[in-house]
């Protein structure tokens, strides 16, 4: 009996104009979106390669230890699957060599937007009149009078409607993924196809939520017009209101200092204040144990070299001075770094708390849960930022250690060598980004998968309960 009801529902949907429209809309949107984003991704890759090349050339020619931090600041390349899911927009704090501001003003259309906005509306379109429409046509009473139970009828409508909805969507997704797989510039790996499969499964769950919502309100309405109004109101709340209001509420409940204030503190503590302390301690050293070098250290490097050659005793004293001066710089850098580090740590802790609070509040929307899953799987979301910070920090430590070794070697050869002198870093370790593994990306989102399943169960169960008391007359 159930299979007969499912086949009936499929046959009616396949012959309906909305099925043809869903096929056309989903296929056109998916292919066009992926084609445009693939082109954009190729441009971003070229831009990233230009950045890295110019940065390498700059360090090779002008590298020095005093400003190695900003000279070697890493540029983050685009995610391999950013042609599918755009995720976090990082262009706000990363200028392009050639920037076109027009796309920023317009809505971005990617896989996540198609699923969360377009397909959720299509799901409601497929289900809003599943029960109320047949009641209006006088068919519902006849079907139930033939001996079919209400549970079987609703289960058949749910399964048949969902399958007929997911067929055009799945075909369009597979066509889009085939387009990506055939694009030689992306060089997809085996793990990427596993990401595709998980994305498709998450999309099914998300679309199913709104299909269940449509059926639920259809069982709570006497007319199809009333059902679609209720369904669209629920869509506005779940898709537009909650995801946009939750981060604002989190910021109101748990405010954090501005990033501009943090940048100002960093500049004052690690730059201006640090330089003033170094100069103060240097002057104190020249007034004390190295008073005999007071008139020498401020000479030009060439003049100092001449004095060192003419007087070996001064040369030895200058080596001692250079060694202690380096210690002053290292100690001051450490002290000021720790001072700023405490401020930054407080800021980061509060930022993480606010981020978690916003994530908790937005979890009341199926859209937010799907977006978290999609962006984490494609390495375009918040988890990817954490992974980037970790691997880039490891490289920065390795580069800093290498530069310190090279600097000490240079000082041994030339006591007058300074932090601002050119340091040959051409043999330095080069950064190679290692993306997180698939399990590492998928594991943090188990809760989001569970929430999507819970939404389905809640609305599906609510529809069944409502249909038991539904007036079919």
Walk me through this protein's architecture:
This protein has 473 residues and is an all-alpha fold. It folds into 2 domains: 2-93 and 105-250 and 437-468, no CATH class; 259-413, no CATH class. 74% of the residues lie in helices and 0% in strands. The protein has helices spanning 2-14, 17-62, 68-71, 102-105, 111-127, 132-137, 139-145, 150-182, 190-219, 224-253, 259-287, 301-310, 312-362, 366-377, 382-413, 438-442, 446-468. Helix 2 (17-62) packs antiparallel against helix 5 (111-127) and helix 9 (190-219) runs antiparallel to helix 14 (366-377). The radius of gyration is 32 Å and the shape is elongated. The chain starts with a helix and ends in a 5-residue tail after the last helix.
Secondary structure elements and their pairing?
Blueprint: H1 2-14, H2 17-62, H3 68-71, H4 102-105, H5 111-127, H6 132-137, H7 139-145, H8 150-182, H9 190-219, H10 224-253, H11 259-287, H12 301-310, H13 312-362, H14 366-377, H15 382-413, H16 438-442, H17 446-468
